């Protein structure tokens, strides 16, 4: 298992890592109920998420579920090109800023200070409703991880993978009585800068999250 996904060896010793509460592995909402009630939501109440809720959503998207490093979403060749960032506006226990999710340890790594919601909304063709979300999950991909094995098929496989991961987050949000939607309309470079991703990370989807 890669212990420090997304962190170069030179950064490991000086990177502040934030532990997330352990993921909850059962709920009163069945898969069938979550599938039936899942809807895209763009209207949110002004209310913070708990750290447990934020961690649960991140785990649903890319959490580790097996000692061999397998995750909640399938990946071609188990290469896991996806990286999730959390742009925090209102999450209890986290200051406003951008954080990278580290699936290996179920932790966060701070990558940028300050509330990024307005910058993300501006990057997303000025969709101002995004600013009302409590936080934004941003999915990016390092395509080279998949290209090294699958070559030209990599983009297709990564596209399939992002669908798996975002649907996981959608269904998890249903179990938490939260709302979200997948946003795919944005300026790629501006979205990458807004969430603090690296130059080799391609932003594929944004998921603003808040209370219904």
Any overview of this molecule?
The protein is of the alpha+beta class and 212 residues long. The protein contains seven helices and seven strands. The chain has helices spanning 9-12, 31-37, 51-62, 117-123, 143-150, 154-175, 188-195, and strands spanning 17-19, 82-88, 97-102, 107-113, 135-141, 178-180, 202-211. It has a seven-stranded antiparallel beta sheet. The longest helix has 22 residues, at 154-175. The chain is globular and about 45 Å long. The model is unreliable at 1-14 (pLDDT under 50).
Question: What's the short version?
Answer:
By secondary structure, the chain is an alpha+beta fold. The chain is built from seven helices and seven strands.
Class based on secondary structure composition and strand pairing: alpha+beta
Please state the average pLDDT score.
Answer: 94
Strand content: 15-25%
Number of strands: 7
Based on Cα principal axes, name the global outline. globular
| SSE succession | HEHHEEEHEHHEHE
Residue stretches low in confidence (pLDDT < 50, at least 5 long) are 1-14
Write down the Rg: 16 Å
**Number of helical regions:** 7
Largest sheet: 7 strands, antiparallel
| Order of strands, widest sheet | 1-4-3-2-5-7-6
Helix content: 25-40%
CA distance, first residue to last residue: 36 Å
């Amino acid at each position: 298992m890669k212990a420090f996904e997304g962190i170069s060896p030179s950064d490991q010793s000086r990177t502040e890592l934030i532990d997330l509460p352990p993921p909850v592995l059962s709920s009163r909402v069945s898969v069938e109920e979550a599938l039936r009630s899942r809807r895209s939501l763009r209207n949110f109440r002004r209310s913070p998420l708990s750290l447990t809720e934020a961690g649960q959503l991140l785990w649903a998207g890319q959490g580790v579920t097996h000692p061999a490093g397998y995750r909640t979403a399938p990946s071609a060749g188990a290469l896991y090109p996806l990286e999730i960032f959390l742009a925090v506006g209102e999450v209890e226990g986290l200051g406003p800023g951008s954080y990278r999710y580290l699936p290996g340890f179920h932790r966060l790594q701070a990558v940028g200070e300050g509330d990024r919601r307005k910058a993300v909304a501006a990057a997303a063709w000025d969709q101002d409703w995004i600013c009302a979300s409590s936080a934004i999950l941003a999915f990016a991909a390092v395509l080279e991880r998949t290209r090294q094995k699958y070559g030209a098929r990599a983009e297709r496989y990564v596209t399939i993978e992002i669908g798996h991961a975002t649907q996981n987050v959608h269904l998890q949000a249903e179990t938490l009585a939260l709302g979200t939607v997948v946003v795919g309309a944005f300026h790629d470079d501006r979205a990458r800068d807004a969430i603090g991703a690296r130059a080799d990370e391609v932003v594929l989807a944004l998921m603003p999250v808040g209370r219904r």
